[in-house]
Records
---
Amino acid sequence: MIALKNIIKKYTTKNGPLTAVDNVNLTINQSEIFGIIGYSGAGKSTLIRLLNGLEQPTEGEVIVNDLKFSHIKGKELREARQKVSMIFQHFNLLWSRTVAENIAFPLEIAGMSKVEREQRVQELITLVGLEGREQAYPSQLSGGQKQRVGIARALANNPQVLLCDEATSALDPETTDNILDLLVDINERLGLTIILITHEMHVIQKICHRVAVMEQGRVVEMGDVLEVFQKPQAPITKRFVSQLTGTEDTNAIFQNVKEHYPTGKLVKLVFVGERTEEPVISQLVKQFDVSVSVVHGNISQTKSGPYGTLVVHIDGASENIKKALQFLHQVDVQTEVISYAN
Ligand SMILES: Nc1ncnc2c1ncn2[C@@H]1O[C@H](COP(=O)(O)OP(=O)(O)OP(=O)(O)O)[C@@H](O)[C@H]1O
């Protein structure tokens, strides 16, 4: 279990003191995939450096596996830090070493014998799917393969926690998905706790169990991914969610709908889990004598199930529209009237 308690991290800059992390409280469970999302400057990297003991908080406690990282020093801290590994956006590989030699590097530092090292490297190569590439140099690898080397190297000494610092931000969408699948596989196979920081909601949606949203050093929202998607509270969270559902580009479409359909209501529906598979819209049309036109739709898979948004224009007698909205509420479809078309 990892806990950040009342963490404040201040830096002294030439423009005066700067609070990079401002009273953050987080608890991350063992074997959880926990995402921290925020725009540049939100304090994510600082938080990750506090989690691996590279930085000490100005105030508060960092607890990793029952050890107070913020209060231990020297050998004890070095040993504790070995249980926390990290992968990076730009991989941080040693360019003059082969794939196998890169993966062996932390084992050499840990003092493992050559024979044991070779066996462990082979296990790790298989785990990350790099068979046949052992003797290649990083410059001969694709971005995804480089990150696989980074992951194998990070796992070499059997850490309990893997920190991922924008680990897929330099990769194309398909490679990103492959690396995210690998992280899920490792999480499930090894029970490793994974904490990742990112500015991409897609990463959170695809693999995280829970998410914390950071803005100006503070955690402004936190919860199960599906819940946060369904009911984002903070304006910044709404922006992240709409990035993913594509609803941020729909203002022009709404305007168009308003012109073409001067009556009725424009409503955003949020479906979660099994609801995404049910014929809710056809029930609406049959039962309430309303017409429904789809303006925009999107469905995404999260770790806890599917999440869909649908923007529809509902028209008909106002009493029927009212009843239709009540029905949606009853069947647990969240609704938000975006604008009145009249
Ligand atoms: N060593 C440092 N000295 C002074 N200020 C720092 C230091 N490290 C970070 N900061 C400042 O702290 C704030 C948070 O930075 P941080 O790098 O943690 O944010 P971030 O969310 O990771 O953004 P990015 O993705 O751009 O790195 C920023 O205003 C940054 O300039």
Note: The chain has two domains: 2-236, 246-340.
---
Amino acid sequence: MNTHPLQDQLRRPIHDLRISVTDRCNFRCSYCMPKEIFGEDYAFLPASELLTFDEICRLTRLFVSLGVSKIRLTGGEPLMRRHLPELVTKISAIPGVEDMGLTTNGVLLGGQAAPLYAAGLRRLNVSLDALEPELFGRMNGRGFRPGMILEAIDQAAAAGFEVKVNMVVQRGVNESEILPMAAYFKKRKITLRFIEFMDVGNDNGWSYDKVVTKQEILQQLQSVYTLEALEQNYSGEVAQRYGYLGSPAQVGFITSVSESFCSTCSRARLSSDGKLYTCLFASKGFDLRIMLRGGAGDEELLAAIKQVWEQRSDRYSDERTEETHRSKAKIGMSYIGG
Ligand SMILES: Nc1nc2c(ncn2[C@@H]2O[C@H](COP(=O)(O)OP(=O)(O)OP(=O)(O)O)[C@@H](O)[C@H]2O)c(=O)[nH]1
Ligand SMILES: C[S@@+](CC[C@H](N)C(=O)[O-])C[C@H]1O[C@@H](n2cnc3c(N)ncnc32)[C@H](O)[C@@H]1O
Ligand code: SF4
Ligand code: SF4
């Protein structure tokens, strides 16, 4: 327990560390890694620039000593990082890590769920934007069909994972999938979370009119179901959750655009090459890898991390306007860690 909890300029503590384990992905979702930018000749990070598992664990231990207790492994597509279960085992063994989750597109989950479970992972968030095969294939930019992902979700749930599903909703693209997705996952008692389309990176074609807001989605759901708002599981929870009357199933909304949640944001992000970011919409990170590889001691690293957090005043979503969206240079989400 820290006697002087670390706080940023807006008195927000540090609680979560979102670790990107790779900048690569087997999908090309247009809202995240549009094909036109992430083409055949795109220069992804070479392996030598990625933090090693030992480097990630060393930093994780330091973050934990500053107040972090929740870890999320993400990317890019985290299941593309080789030997990921080894990292899960190592992070699970760090005293003070109370919760760890993984966010994945699920394509490689079928083959990896068992070793990940054996390594200690219990929570999976699987992203899926549509059940309709053609539409899903277009949205992921690579023609993948949803069938294998749906099977992997069922298997993971049966194996004991707590599984949630993330769906990014874009106007004119997949609103027609809101009710079919809700019915499908309600039946399986798997929480489906609708994510408002965000203006991450600089090239994802975002505009306000393409955002389908929580209120609009809720209205669609309420035309069929009776829903009741649920209490937050913990302060700073990203999703607002609702329960279906008469069922243990839940839905959630991640409302970065219509109801931003920066005032309770306690999330730090570590990119796969070791840069520390204090906001999903950041333009610049702090290079921890150069310190790690330059022989910095733990005290030096701790002092640097503390300083970055103490100086933090990010609240991009609170301040979002057409103008900030256009004028701010932002790092891509697949790199920074979604
Ligand atoms: N704007 C914004 N979006 C976030 C933030 N944290 C997570 N998200 C978005 O929320 C969506 C779901 O993220 P997940 O990776 O599933 O993580 P989570 O919802 O925090 O996970 P749980 O611990 O299961 O609640 C993704 O689109 C993230 O990019 C944040 O701090 N700001
Ligand atoms: C960047 S991905 C990384 C993990 C993994 N590849 C996946 O898709 O689950 C993390 C999450 O960010 C979401 N995401 C990506 N771009 C987004 C955007 N522009 N707006 C809202 N959510 C987005 C994805 O749907 C996914 O749930
Ligand atoms: S959202 Fe995830 S699956 Fe889609 S391109 Fe981004 S990193 Fe890949
Ligand atoms: S926009 Fe930035 S500060 Fe606001 S909740 Fe997201 S990551 Fe946190």
Note: Residues 25, 31-32, 74-75, 77, 103-105, 127, 166, 168, 195, 197-198, 200, 204, 333-334, 338 surround S-adenosylmethionine (ligand 2) (CB under 6 Å).
---
Amino acid sequence: MSARRTRIKFCGMTRPEDIALAVSLGVDAIGLILVPASPRALDLARAVDLRRTIPPLVTCVALVRDAEPAFVADVVERLRPDLLQFHGREPAADCRRAGLRYLKAIPMGDPAAGLRMLDDHTSAAGYVFDSHGVDGIGGTGRVFDWNLIPAGARRCAILAGGLEPGNVGDAVRAVRPFAVDVSSGIEAQPGVKCPQRMRDFVAQVRGADESEPDQGAEQ
Ligand SMILES: O=C(O)c1ccccc1NCC(=O)[C@H](O)[C@H](O)COP(=O)(O)O
């Protein structure tokens, strides 16, 4: 039996009842989006309210994209997330300046530019490999070619982009990432999660954790 446990992040959460179900399903991280262009965007006051419903030991991730450093500082001070996630072109120095561990989104819609960001962000605590282009936003619902993730980065990768209950098992078996991240694939409509899809997503990840790896997948 595999001792692997792929971590799960549910992103774009906007409702306390969706967070409560995610927590009861054992989801490891909750993403709150502070990007105005997102259909799942929260203003900071609403995010602070929702953050109170996330229990200790469940990671709260605050997402920003090319935001002013003063706004990021405000997020850190008022929201007190466990991690920041930078989803744009922000340079590593700006990410570090916030003084919190951070995830860097890698835009695999532009693989060459995305993979350069890996080298620029050696200070990141982790990398979210997502489907957007370098000037796009996340939550695309699109899958990218998982073979483009460098073999050496898979074990610590957070895999995102178009995952849903119907394909996340294949994704876990093929890539064996550290974590999977989903937004639109568990929704009834943007910002409103679907309880059954949330349950099915977690069940598919756990099923894949128990399975033998695909040929060629790293252990
Ligand atoms: O989800 C959004 O609306 C979003 C907007 C702007 C920046 C980031 C955003 N999402 C970040 C995430 O971590 C999503 O989980 C990730 O992009 C995957 O989305 P999906 O393909 O819909 O599962």
Note: The chain has eight helices and ten strands.
---
Amino acid sequence: MRITCTIQETRERLAEAKAAGKKIGFVPTMGYLHEGHARLVEVAGKHCDFVVVSIFVNPTQFAPGEDLSTYPRDAERDEALLKKVGCQLLFRPDEKEMYPTPSLTRIELPELASQLCGKSRPTHFQGVATVVAKLLHIVQPEFAFFGMKDGQQLAIVKRMVEDLNFPVQIIGVPTVREEDGLAKSSRNVYLNEHQRQTAPQIYQALLKGKAAIEAGETDPNRVRQIIYSHLQDQPELRIDYVEVVRLSDLQPAAQIEGDIMLAVAVYLGKARLIDNLQLHVKNSTSGQRRQVLDKGLDIL
Ligand SMILES: Nc1ncnc2c1ncn2[C@@H]1O[C@H](COP(=O)(O)OP(=O)(O)OP(=O)(O)O)[C@@H](O)[C@H]1O
Ligand SMILES: CC(C)(CO)[C@@H](O)C(=O)[O-]
Ligand code: BAL
């Protein structure tokens, strides 16, 4: 695995790979890697023959008062994990390399970015979209891989790429979970033992919402209420939001039909945790049971 810290050297390595006919897959991350990231790299490796991972804790997606300065970092462990899972190039720029001067260009998708996490993190997705655009321009991959755990981020990146005709296909990868259902996340390290025991209730709440849909619930507000009250029963959790939205535009779903997302954000101790279920619901027309499918890996 090669490691680059500059954009120029990254481009040189990529030019060599492209000249050798390699198909480039890209996995952008903020480091402190876990099995969720490893899965993205493995999926990328199955479909591409040169996998690039970036590690950059992007300051512009953190608001003042958020956890930029305490965001967990472990460069050596990250390097070892990436070598094991088959990354060919690790791009690890510092802030000066990515922002030699403050960026005066910003990419905004206000209709998508103001929903869900955007209500408590109003500048977050502008930072994400802009840095992802920069990274995609630097790496110019054929495929880029993002986790479905960050469902709003995935929807925003997909839409940006479509609207601005980036020559890349964005692939969503299903959420990797701990055995007890908690979505793997770098921020889980903020949880103390007791909070860690409570955290799987987030997934349990989402599963209750899904079970209600499977049992025939047709009212999105009722599904939302079921998830909400399960979370409310957990004394340590503070709910940021519970929403049932359409995946296409992240607007509240008017009905339980088609591609929808049950999405949750909670505060638990020092951590703000998000999770979601992305479902495809096919309502029956002639008395058959409704079909509720988990949306899987995007078809490549
Ligand atoms: N459990 C997971 N399963 C699948 N993909 C994941 C998982 N966790 C993170 N990812 C994906 O890895 C990529 C990099 O994410 P990031 O480095 O922010 O990790 P994270 O664990 O989500 O961190 P954070 O705790 O800040 O949310 C994103 O595309 C994200 O969706
Ligand atoms: C996509 C990303 C690397 C942009 O900084 C970040 O938001 C993340 O790790 O999900
Ligand atoms: N994976 C999301 C990055 C963030 O919360 O800043």
Note: The longest helix spans residues 124-139.
